Amino acid sequence: MRLLEKNGFKLIKEKGFIRHYAKRGHPRLIRIHYHGSKEVPTGTYHAILKAAGLE
Questions:
Q1: At 35, is the secondary structure helix, strand, or coil?
Q2: What pTM was estimated for this model as a whole?
Q3: How many C-beta neighbours within 10 Å does residue 22 have?
Q4: Is 51 helix (H, G, I), strand (E, B) or coil?
Q5: pLDDT tens digits for 35-46?
């Protein structure tokens, strides 16, 4: 997700449809189910932002 990468998160692991992002100083890995160009549902988007501390 571009928004995570813009805020300093780096893709550290990718296996199948699951991508893991991490940021130095952030205590958690952010796990995202990635399906190409499909749009992320609104609720999932907000959950990702909350987990990343961006919301």
A1: coil
A2: 0.82
A3: 17
A4: helix
A5: 888 888 899 999
Q: Which residues have a Cβ under 8 Å from the Cβ of 16 and sit 6 or more positions away? A: none
- Residue 49 has a CB neighbour count (10 Å cut-off) of 16
Amino acid at 34: Y
Work out whether the CA dihedral 2, 8, 11, 48 comes out positive or negative: negative
User: What confidence tens digit (pLDDT) does each residue in 1-53 have?
Assistant: 789 999 999 999 999 999 999 999 999 999 998 888 888 889 999 999 999 99
CATH 3.40.50.720 given to domain 2-52: no
Please report, for the chain, the start and end positions of each structural domain, with discontinuous segments joined by +. 2-52
